[in-house]
């Protein structure tokens, strides 16, 4: 499957396999924005996300020889960025992960299914979640990981993954209700 906008990156990928700096720079520039958008889902702030992207590209350049050109480079990169972000979360939150508390709860009702939020508004809502809730929500609902996989990757009990996902979804519903319930529908 081609990477649409980046489908002509085969020469850069081959150059990276030969450790050519210009090819590495070209690949980095071509995919930086995409990698950053993935890293932001798992980071507390932009600086942390940029650091995750940089670390991910170091891994990409070290492991590019293992990349199978029959697969999507974008998909391969996405996995590396997610794994790098998860590694950072594990290191940063070894003892804190299970003790993160919810704060500033806003009571509300469940939003209707006819919501017309923009991607930016959805990202902003997700960005307000506590870090562990955001991470598990993104891994489960966006990336499609199972609770068992999340449990193994984050080294937390499976039941904690379920609880954090439930809390994240509840918080998102409450934030939606509070911020967008009385907002006129977009045409």
Features:
Arc Repressor Mutant, subunit A; 8 helices; mainly alpha
What does this structure look like?
The chain is built from eight helices and no strands. It folds into two domains: 4-92, RNA polymerase sigma factor, region 2, helix turn helix motif (Rna Polymerase Sigma Factor, Chain: A, Orthogonal Bundle), CATH 1.10.1740.10; 97-180, Orthogonal Bundle (Arc Repressor Mutant, subunit A), CATH 1.10.10.10. Helices cover 64% and strands 0% of the residues. With 187 residues, the chain is an all-alpha fold. The model is unreliable at 1-6 and 97-114 (pLDDT under 50).
How many E-type strands? 0
- Tell me the helix content: 55-70%
Q: Judging by the overall fold, what is the CATH architecture of the largest domain?
A: Orthogonal Bundle
Give helix and strand order, one letter per element, not per position. HHHHHHHH
Calculate Rg over CA atoms: 19 Å
Biggest sheet architecture: none
CATH class of the largest domain: Mainly Alpha
Q: Give the full name of the CATH homologous superfamily of the largest domain.
A: RNA polymerase sigma factor, region 2, helix turn helix motif
C-alpha end-to-end distance: 34 Å
Spans where pLDDT lies below 50 across 5 or more residues = 1-6, 97-114
- The shape, in one word, is globular
CATH topology of the largest domain, which one? Rna Polymerase Sigma Factor, Chain: A
Structural class: mainly alpha
Count of the domains: 2
Determine the strand fraction and express it as a percent band. under 5%
Give the quaternary arrangement of the chains. Answer: single chain
């Amino acid at each position: 499957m081609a990477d649409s906008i980046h489908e002509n990156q085969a020469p850069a990928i081959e150059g990276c396999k030969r450790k050519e700096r210009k090819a590495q720079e070209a690949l980095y520039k071509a995919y930086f924005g995409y990698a950053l958008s993935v890293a932001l889902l798992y980071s507390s702030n932009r600086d942390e996300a940029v650091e995750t992207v940089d670390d991910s590209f170091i891994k990409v350049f070290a492991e590019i020889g293992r990349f199978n050109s029959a697969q999507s480079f974008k998909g391969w990169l996405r996995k590396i960025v997610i794994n790098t972000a998860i590694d950072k979360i594990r290191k940063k939150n070894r003892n804190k992960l299970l003790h993160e508390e919810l704060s500033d709860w806003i009571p509300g009702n469940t939003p209707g299914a006819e919501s017309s939020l923009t991607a930016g508004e959805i990202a902003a809502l997700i960005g307000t979640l506590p870090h562990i809730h955001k991470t598990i929500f993104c891994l489960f609902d966006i990336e499609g990981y199972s609770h068992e996989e999340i449990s193994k990757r984050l080294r937390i009990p499976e039941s904690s993954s379920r609880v954090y996902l439930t809390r994240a979804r509840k918080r998102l519903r409450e934030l939606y209700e509070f911020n967008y319930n009385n907002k006129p529908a977009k045409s």
